[in-house]
Structures are given as structure tokens and as C-alpha cells.
Amino acid sequence: MKICKVLLILFVLITNELFSQKTIYLADKISKIGIENVNAAFFNGNLLSDKFGKLVLPVLQYSDTLVFSHVSYESKKIKYNELNQLDTLFLTLKNYVTDDVTITSKTTSSQTKQVYKVDETKKALFNTTGDMLKFDAGIYVKDYGGDNGVKSVSLRGLSSENTIVLFNEARINDLRTGMFDFSLISPLVINKMEVYKNTDFNGSNISEGGIIKLVSGDNITVNKLFAGLKTNTDNLVSGFLNVERVAGNFSYAINFERSYSSNNYNYSFEGSDYDRKNAFFSKYFVSSTIEYKNSVNVLKAYFHLTELNSGIPGFVVTNNTESSQASNNSNTWLAILTNDFQINNSISLLSMLSFNKQNLKLKDPYMQIFSNKTEQKSLLNDFSGKVKLQYFSSDWIVNLGYEFYYSDLKNDLPTEQNKILKLNKTSNKVFASGTYKNSSLLKFVDNFQLMALTSYEMINEKIFGHNNDYIPAYKISLRFESIGIKNLNLILNNSISKRAPSFNEQFYSCLYNIKVLNDEKYRSWDASLDYSFNILGKENLTFTYYDIISKDKIVWIPSRQALQVPKNYGHVRHQGFEIEYTGDYLNNLLGISILYNNNIAKNKSLMYSGDNSYNKQLVYTPEHRLNINMDVRYNRFHAAIYSSLISERYYTADNTSKNKLDPYFILDAALSYSLDLFNIRNNLTISVSNILNEEYFIIQSYPMPLRTIALTYILEM
Amino acid sequence: MKNIFYLIILCSVLFVSCSKNDDPVTPQTVETKYKGVYIVNEGLYGQNNSSVSYYDFETQTATNDVYAKANPGINLGDTANDMDIYGDKGYIAVDYSNKVEIIDLNTSKSLGYVDLGVGSSPRDVVVLDSTIAYVTCLAKDALVKFNPSTKQVIKTIPIGSKPEAAVYSAGKIYVTNSGYGDTNTVSVVDITTDTEEKVLTVGYNPRFAHTKNDGYVYVVCTGVYDAVGKGSLYKIATNSNTVVDSLIINSNPGESCLINNNQMVIATNNGLIKVNLTNMKQVGDIFVSSTSINPVYGVIYSVAFDSKNNLLYCGNAKDYQQDGEIVVMDLNGSEIKRFGVGINPGCILIVN
Fold first, then answer.
1. A247 contacts chain B (CB < 8 A)
2. Where are the alpha helices (DSSP H) in A236-277?
């Protein structure tokens, strides 16, 4: 009987919570049209409005304050008790453009882009941005294990060099390797991730591996101090501080992070348990964003400095459980200056300058990697800039732009003492893109869009001699909205592009192979069906089929004395499909996303009659991936469950079963609780990674951590 | 919500149960008859998949993974470089596993291993008798003496930088110090004192050493990896421990073996050449092109000579990412047959 009473009380409380939520519509003050992606910041989180401008708020205290913000509209601050009397809140359009990305999403929301907000629970659950991409965005991350193991992404079975990573609009792919290591940026400084599996038609890049945009210090509207501590069972200790301030036309954000881990986590190999050695890391990260806005101009300056010292763990093979005690030391700073100038109501000019300096040292105290030295240095300077003129109207967006980079690299030669090789590379690129939208052109659809981007890049590089490279590329996209059925959309994409070899690829090819590498060449098309519906809640289902053919793919193959040499590798075909379902139920109380990726990436070059790699899956490329994520918000609790299922992979080109990595299933979960005490918001999160204690490898010989429990405390005032 | 949660758990259970194979594996009888061709396949660096293949002269068939089949549940290790034979036992230097694995050549069963310790990187084994053996340890800049019977390390002898090959002749071990291409010395180690007795200067990047115990040791120096790839062959007289002759060879000479008529076959970037060791002159031009062995990358990965049948066995690593093959040919370069082996066949040992 007592239990019944308790259950009854709980039922009343729950139903009270459920049915006392507030629905509000955000609409343009003049057109009265709903506004998508309005951010509502409140006591214990934030939410975005849907495409109709609808937003369902959880129950809040009457004295709580909400801030509604959107980069194209003036922000509005309002008390919950005032809001409770309204059905619709009208926002006023700014008379300047603050962010071309959001203009893109507003006027061409059709782009196949996924936007992920990064809230406190995510910051607490994930140690690296790579983990966040893996679980939240369903992107395959090649991970060498541990809190600070290298984490690079792979979209549609393509290599990491094919994915362009932009941080606050500046490209941050390492020009040495072409890829970006996502373990280097902490989720703590990221407010938003955007994933374009195709391309950003307001940008300048065409890349078959997609574009990932990371945004920090985004849209600061209130004064905030955010600090926290994190620890986990792999001996991670991390402290962080984030200060955001607004003063008149100025706003700024400062982030600081200090983290350390001995990272000698347990793993199991061939039936025995080991501690992984020399996998420690120690990191400092400081960043600042300063923004000045007036009615026609937004000037933003970003700077960060990272100091990272990390051990190089040994391979995990038979009795070789120790390591060389070698370590990597990297010192990186990045400065970005952007200015968005609204010339008139239809034309804006975006300009950007960035400077990235990376100083790497590989320390080998016992000379087990190098024969005659204990240290090898590499210094990279990367200076880039971009200008883009944008015209926009109700039907058209047209972009014209130019971008450049100059980078130089000073590398110690790997096998010789006191010999430094100086390399440099210059790139000049012009690009043009446009979007045309028409609702009456085609009778069988409600709306039609044509998007196109073309670019021409000229690269001059000095490696061992001068080499000129010319890279034309184009991408075109057609979108048909409501094809016979309301909210059923068809999107078609086609592109031709190239990828120039990275510094390292060209350098090592010339050093040992005496050959300048060819560009990788790509031809691709994809088709998507996208359907939004409201059966169980607010739901969306997308099906995409893609086909990418690459020629002269660059692969690293082992050669003399264990050296790896890059070579062009004939052609490879990537085919597959992606199914994505997202649903928000019970007035945003419960969210579920399911992503399935099928990827058949096969070598289509028969080198000779005995070539057993012909028509075989590329190494380390899973054919099936499934991500199922759940998100539950209830009052001051926020729970999240992330799961990832990866099918078997091969690590030899002939796909023999003896050289196969088993499939694995990973389940992570986090539970957060927020409490206001003396005007300070306290958030405590407990998170468990690899709940099922799965023993698995993503890369052979690099064991992934077993179950790890983390505790994070964050205060906000 | 509850159902979805159970669905995830169910997925995980199903998945875990199908990803593990707990069935006991029965050891297989492996047809190795002591005599035949043993191929040590390096596997892929850092991936623990070295293997041994065996080619039977009688049946003219190859059996792959003979070690794995005879020793279920145990991997040979990571990057097996070399094998030496003494009696009916094989001694395999397994580089990144820091060990010398000992196998019974009649059964391929493991007889244990010599643990050389972290950061050893064993490259070349020389077994003198049942109690004395030496192995070069590249990462330790040392020659390590061990007892093959007790499997214990006896002594670590410091020598030059990044030692590769070792060969025994006239009471000395001759070790090539490659220095990863930066050095040009051969250490002469006296086995009575187990100390480096003398250092000889040869060409840069000495990586291979051979002897017929006729008073000479021959050292193949690969040279630097530049456009010319100028390497060399050095002849050392063992009675005086001095260099008595040398020959410049272009295109990075490397893998090599002694053949009859006091000649040597050397693999260069372009193909196989013959050298007359009496007058230290190249005999003719390239008689087997690299691309006839490996059409794409043009690299001859290993070479050995069957003195009984006058046949050359050449390793083809294909693209280094898949199982390789052995190409058998006569001394005129005519191909006789090919057979499949494991990944990166780096060492071929022929027992007649």
C-alpha cells in the first residue's frame, strides 16, 4: 500500500511536469514566419526551435530568465512568468549579417548538414571532440586508444585527409599530414559542431570526405562564468574555466583547460591482462574570443595556445608490453581574425586571416627510434586568408571569393643528424558558388533549389624541387521539396574534385621513392530522400545512397627497413547508403537518433594476376556501422545513452580471415543533475564509457580502454 | 523507451556473443619434414601477424601458417626477420616481440623463446652449437649472446650503430652496423672473449653479410636512398680482418645470396645481378628485372639459392598489405613457378 502511495505521488509529479511544459513559437516580427534554430538559453540547458519556429520548454521557475538568440535576429531576454502569457514571441531582424553559416542555414536549410549543440552533459561525457563526433554524429573515428590517442575521422570510407576541418571558419587540417587530430581540441571550448557530408555551398571547399565545422565562443549574449573539474578511473584530472562577458558592442570569452592523465589503462590481449605503458599526456589549453559588433560590422578575433606532451605507447605484441619512453611534445598557437561587413541590405563582405604555428618535437631519450639523436623537430607556419563577397535576395545567394595560404615547414631529416629540410607551399584559390530557390518553377514540387560551387586552386610547392599543381573542382546539388507527399524531399549531388598530396606524403615519396605523387582524383554522386513527419513525435527519416570513384589514391606501404612510403594506388570505389532517423517525443523530453551506415569501399585496381587485394574491402573500413543514441531530459536531470556497433574490419588488403578485427559494440551513458544554490548553478555528471567492458581494437595493436567511469562537476554563475 | 533500451542491450548481447570464438582449437599435424624451404613472413609492422610457410620439395606444395597451425592460440609475434637452423631446430628472430622463437622443424611446434627484453629489436641469428648463439639487436646497438638450450641471455656485447646482419667465420662474428644508412662499419667480435675486437670501414648502410668459410666475408652495403642509390660490395679477409676489395653497385643493392661458381646474386632496385667474388666484378647485366618479380612496386623482397637444384627463390611482397609469394627461377632468370606464402616474405631458408 505504501508503495502504491509513493507511485501515485510520483505519477502526479511526473504528469504535472509533463503537462506543465510551455510551447512557444518564435516568429519574424514583420513576416510573422516561424524562425528555425532560435536558441533558447535557460536555467539548465538550451533548446533550438524547429523549422516552424516551435519550441517546447521544460518547466521552469517563474523567476527564471530565458534568452532567445539567433544570429540574424536581435536577442531577447524575458522572464519565464512573462513568457508564460505568450503564444508567440516575435524577434526583430538585425540589419546586418553576423555569420554567413547561419545565413546559409536560414535561406538554404536544405543543405545536408547536421548541427550538434554541445551542452554540459556532452562536455562532461566526452573527453575529446573525436569521441563526440563518433557517438553524436555517427562518424567513424580511427582511434589509437586512450584519452589522448590520435583520433581522426573517416566519412564514407575515405581517408582522414579527405575531411576538411574548419575551426571558427579557419581550416585547421595539419598541412603535414593533411588530417586533423580531434584529440587536440577539447569539447569544453566547443559550442557547436556542424557536419556537412557533402559540402557547404557558401564555403570554398569541395571535399569528398565532407566538412566538419567547429565553433567556439559563439553568440555570446549574457555574462557567464563556467568552471569545472573532471576525473576518471584512467587517472585523468582536468580543470577548466570559461568566462563570457558582454559590454556594449563588445563581448569576449576566455577558456582555460589543464588536464593530465597517466593513462596507463588496463587492456586484455590474448587472454592476459596488461597495463598500457607510456601513454600519458599533459595538456594546457588557453583560448580567447573577442567580438565587436555594430549595425554593419562584426569583427571577431580568436586566439588559442595549446601545449601537449604525450607518451608514445609501444605496440601491444606478445611479450612487448613496455615502450621506448619516447614522447611527442607539441606547441601550437592559432590566431584567427574575421570581419563580416554588411555593405547594404543585399551584399556583405567576409574577410578572414589566420596564422597557425605548430612546433613539434619527438623525444627519444634512449635513441630507440633514431640512430644518433634523442630529438627530432618539425616547425610548421601556416598563414591563410579569405575574402568572400556575398549577394543575397529572397531567391538567390551568390558568393565570389578568393583564398590563399602560405606555409613553410622545417623538418629534421629522420635518419640524419643536424640536417634540416626546408619546404614550402603556396596556394591561391578562386571560388564561386550560388543558390537559386524557386517555389513555382516546377509544378510537381513545392519548392526547388539549385546549388553549385566551383573552385580553381593553384599550388606551388618546394619539396626537393619546385612542383606546380592545378586543382579544378565543382559540385552541384538539386533539391526538390515535397515531391508528391508533403515534407518528402529529394536531394541530388554530383561532383568532381582532387586532393593534393600533403607535405608528408610528397616529402616521403620524394625522399625514398624519388617520385612526385599525383593528386587523388574523385568523381561522385549521391541521392537523398528526406521525410519529416509527426507520428510519435517530431520525426525525420533520411535515406542516402552514394557512389564515389577515386583514382590515384595515396596509400602508405611498408618498404625498406620498416620505412613507410606513400604511393598512388590505382582506383577505389566507395558505395553505400546511410539511413538516419531522429525523433523528439513527449515534448522534447525524449530524443532518439539512429544512424546506420553501409559502406563498401573496394580496391578496383587489378595490379597483376596474383593481386589478391582486387575487389576487396579497404583496410580498417567497416562495412556496417550503427549508432543508437538516446537523450532524456526530465526536470533537473539529463541522461544520455550512446551506443555504437561496428562490423568486422581487415588490416590486410587481401581480407584474409586471420587478419581480421572482430566487430564490437560500445555502450556509453551519462547522467547529469543540476541544482541552483545561491545563484550558482551546480551540475554534477557521472558518466561511464564502455559499460559492457568490451575488449576491442579499432587499429590493430592499439587496445581501446575497458570500462571507464568519470565524474564531472561544473558550476555556472 | 523501455523496449528501446532492451533493444540496445539485446543488440549488445547478441553482438558480444557472436564476436567471440571460445571453441578450443585442436593442434594440427603440420607436414614439415625438416628438409625443404622455410619462409619467414614478417607480417605487418605492429600487427603481430608474422608467420612461417613451408615448401615441400617432394610434393612441390607450400603450407602456410605452419607455426600457427601447430601452436593454436599462440602467435609467432611481430615482424619476424630472420631464421637460422641448427640440428632440427629453427631459431627465429622476432623483431618487435623482442625474442628469438625456437621451433621444432619436424613439427613446427614452439619449444619456447629467448626473451631479449624491451627495446631489443633482434634482426639476425647465428647459432654455433646447442649452447652458444648470437643475435644482433638493432635497437640496443649490441650483439647478444644466448644459450639456445637454457634460453637464457649470456652477455650483451656493445657494437656499432643499428646492427643488422651477423655471420660467423674463423672464430669471429662479423656484424654489419647499418646506422639506418648513416654509418659504414663492420664490427668484428671475438667469440672467445665476446668483445668487439676491431671495427672495419665499408660502404654506407651495410645490411647483409655472407661467407662460404673460405677465408672471406662479403658485406653488401645498400647505400643512401637517393636517385642514384650508390651501394657497394666489400670483401673482407678473415685471416687479417681487413678489407681486401670492393665494388660499387648502383640502385641500392640489398637482398643477396651466394650461388655456385664463387658468385653472388644481389637484388638491386632494378633487378638481380651476379657478381664474381673472385675478381669482384659484375657478371653481365641485370638477368632478372625487379618488375618481373613484382610488376607494380618492382621490389625483390628476399632471395635464396637452392644449391642442389640450382634454383633461385625470390620473395615478392606484392603491395606489402597482402599475402606474398615466392618466385622460383633458374640461374638464367627463367621463371619456373610461383607459390603463395604469408605477408612480406623477408627470409627464405633452404635445407637440402
1. no
2. none
Task: Say how far apart CA A169 and CA A289 lie, in whole Å.
Answer: 13
Mean pLDDT of A512-531: 87
CA-nearest residue to A414 within chain B is: B180
Cβ within 8 Å of A, B 112-171: 113, 115, 118-119, 121, 139, 161-162
Burial of B69 (0-12, 13-18, 19+ CB in 10 A): middle
Alpha-carbon span A70 to A53, nearest angstrom:
12
> How far, in Å, CA of B206 to CA of B200, rounded?
11
Dihedral of CA atoms A150, A154, A158, A163 in degrees, nearest 10, equals -90
**In this structure, which amino acid lies at residue A613?**
S
DSSP A320: B
Q: Do A701 and B295 touch (CB under 8 A)?
A: no
Task: Give the model's pLDDT for residue A455.
Answer: 95
DSSP H stretches of helix in A225-303: none
Task: Tell me how far apart the alpha carbons of residues A343 and A95 are, in angstroms, rounded to a whole number.
Answer: 11
**Interchain CB contact of A494 with B (< 8 Å):** no
Render pLDDT for A207-258 as a digit per residue (tens, 0 to 9): 888 899 888 766 677 788 889 898 988 888 999 898 988 888 888 889 898 9
Return mean pLDDT, chain A.
81
Q: Report A:366-395 residues touching B (Cβ under 8 A).
A: 366, 368, 370-372
Q: CB under 8 Å to A551, separation ≥6 — which residues? A: A520, A521, A570, A571
Which tens digits make up the pLDDT trace of A147-200? 777 788 878 878 888 899 988 778 888 888 888 888 777 777 787 888 888 788
In this structure, are residues A78 and A65 in contact, taking their beta carbons and an 8 Å threshold? yes
How many angstroms separate the CA atoms of B324 and B320, rounded?
Answer: 8
Subunit contact A645:B11, Cβ cutoff 8 A: yes
- The pLDDT score that the predictor gives to residue B8 is 34
Of residues A651, A667, A694, nearest to B44 (C-beta):
A651
- For position A421, what pLDDT does the model report? 77
With beta carbons under 8 A apart, name residues in chain A contacting B122: none
Q: CA of B178, closest CA in chain A: separation in Å?
A: 9
Helices (H) and strands (E) in chain B, counts: 3, 28
Contact yes or no for A180/A430 (Cβ under 8 A): no
Q: Mind listing the pLDDT tens digit for each residue in A668-683? A: 898 989 888 888 889 8
Quick one: pLDDT at residue A583?
92
Amino acid identity of residue B54, one-letter, is Y
Q: How many Å lie between the alpha carbon of B219 and the closest alpha carbon of chain A?
A: 17
Nearest chain B residue (CA) to A277: B118
Render pLDDT for A3-56 as a digit per residue (tens, 0 to 9): 445 444 444 444 343 434 577 878 766 555 668 778 887 766 677 787 667 787
- In angstroms, the separation between the Cα of residue B14 and the nearest Cα of chain A is 10
Does the structure show a pLDDT above 70 at A124?
no
- The conformational region for residue A588 under phi > 0 = left, psi -120 to 50 = alpha, else beta, is left
Is the dihedral angle over the CA atoms A631, A632, A636, A637 positive or is it negative? negative
CA distances from A91 to A28, A33, A106, A638 (A): 5, 10, 14, 29
What are the cell numbers at A656? 584474409
Candidate from B47, B96, B320 with C-beta closest to A557? B320
Dig out the grid coordinates for A680 from the structure.
550558482
Regions of chain B short of the pLDDT cut 50? 1-27, 29
Which residue of chain A comes nearest to B74, CA vs CA?
A: A270
The alpha-carbon gap from A157 to the nearest alpha carbon of chain B, in Å, equals 18
Rounded average pLDDT over A458-468: 85
Quote the CA–CA distance of A389 and A308 in Å, as a whole number: 38
pTM of the model: 0.77
* β-bridge partners, B101: B92, B113
Q: How many CB pairs under 8 A join A and B?
A: 172
